[in-house]
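Q: Here's a chain of 153 amino acids. Please give me its 3D structure as C-alpha cells.
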Amino acid sequence: MIEKIDHRNPVLAEEVYSIFQVSYAVEAKLLNAVDFPPLKRSVTDFLASNTEFYGCWCEQEMTGVIEIKREEGSIHIQSLVVAPTFFRQGIASKLLAFVFTMFQAMIYTVETGVGNLPATTLYKKFGFKEVKQWNTDHGVRKVKFRREVCLEN
C-alpha cells in the first residue's frame, strides 16, 4: 500500500528519517562516499521540508519512501529509498509507477551516484535518459536522468 506521509508529524518524520539513514548508508558504501550529504539530514529537516513524501507499507512496516518536488510541468524525484531488508522486492518500482500514475507531468527528473548501479538500472528501465554527469564537492560522481512524457488532451 502506498500513501502520502504526513512528514510534519514527528513520529512519521522519525520513521522517514530512519529509513533514509539505513538506505543511504548502503548507497554511501556502494559509492565509496565518506562525506554523504543525504546522511546529514535530520528529523528536523524532514519536519520542515517543502517536498512531498509517499511511503510504501507492508502490513504495518514502512518499506520504502519516495520524495518529490512538484513544479510547473515537471516533477523532480528528490529521493527514493527502500529499507535494505526489502531490497529487490519491487518496492522502488512500485513507488516510481505510483508517481507516474498519480502526478502527470511533461518532465520527470532524478539524480543519483554514477556508481549506484541498482538505481541507474531502475531509472533506465522506466524510460529515463541520462542528460548530465558531474563531480560533486564531496567526491561523488553524479548523474542526472530525465524522462519526457507526451500528454494527450
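Q: Can you summarize the key feature?
A: The radius of gyration is 15 Å.
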